[in-house]
Amino acid sequence: MPYDSQISFTLDTICPWTYLARRRLSRALSQVRSSHPDSPVKFHIKFFPYQLYPEASKEGEDKYEWYKRSKYGDSDEKMKMYMALMGAYGKDEGIAFRFGGTVANTLDAHRVIQHFQEEKEEEVAEKVVDSLYSQYFENEKHPSSAETLLKATADAGISDAEARAFIEDEYEGLQDVKMLIREQAGNGVDAVPYVVIEGKRRDFTLQGAKEVEEYVKTLEQVIKES
User: What ranges in the chain are assigned the alpha helix state H?
Assistant: First the structure.
């Protein structure tokens, strides 16, 4: 019997580990779909919001200086080590991490992801998320400015008029997103990435950015048990 398995992917668009996890999980899904073409299980991704820094302002502040101060004790040396490490991880996944730009509140980015995930098909939400990641991490763009959000929706094939009408009404969908964030915290999510893959007999929870092989193994276990 065919079976739909939801992959609940909890993320923040300014978390580099969720970007890595997104790329690795995408690779794993491609591998599993091609190696199991007759599988009765159809995997679907659904994104859920999480805010690493809910107290961040909308305007934001310098990303490099913020990271150096808040994570690495104002040490340029430790910051260089972090950049080298993330650069190496990113290279393996085709991500060219850059560390300039602005770190800011991501609530509006989550608002856009959730709205168009509900309104459109799955692939549209995936394209919005991927654009937000690449703009922030590889092009040093503000994570949730109107310009960034309009570029993400355009990259997903959403008309400018439809996207602009939603993005410019800053209260539309806001309470829904805040409620989802609270629900995630209530579900025990206290860090991201947090991935739950639904199985017929049991669900599989993967916390942190796993290797492609681990995602493949888990997806195949879901198929095996269905």
Answer: 16-35, 63-71, 76-92, 107-119, 122-139, 146-155, 160-167, 174-186, 212-224
Q: Which two tokens stand for residue 146?
A: 């109107």
Task: Name the token pair of 196.
Answer: 């739950």
Instruction: Supply the DSSP string of 123-173, one letter for each residue.
Output: HHHHHHHHHHHHHHHHH---SS-HHHHHHHHHHTT--HHHHHHHHT-TTTT
Type of residue at 153: T
**Which 8-state DSSP code applies to residue 59?**
S
Contacts with 224 (C-beta within 8 Å, 6 or more apart), sequence order = none
Residue 126 pLDDT more than 90?
yes
pLDDT score of 1 more than 80: no
User: Cβ distance 11 to 204 under 8 Å?
Assistant: no
Can you give the pTM of this predicted structure?
0.96
CA distances from 137 to 28, 98, 100 (A): 22, 6, 9
Question: Domains of the chain by range and CATH?
Answer: 3-224 (3.40.30.10)
Task: Give per-residue pLDDT as tens, 173-201.
Answer: 999 999 999 999 888 899 999 999 999 99
Structure tokens belonging to residue 163: 């996207």
**To 10 degrees, what angle do helices 107-119 and 122-139 make?**
160
Structure confidence by residue, pLDDT tens digits, 135-176: 999 999 999 999 999 999 999 999 999 999 999 999 999 999
Which amino acid is residue 66, in one-letter code?
W
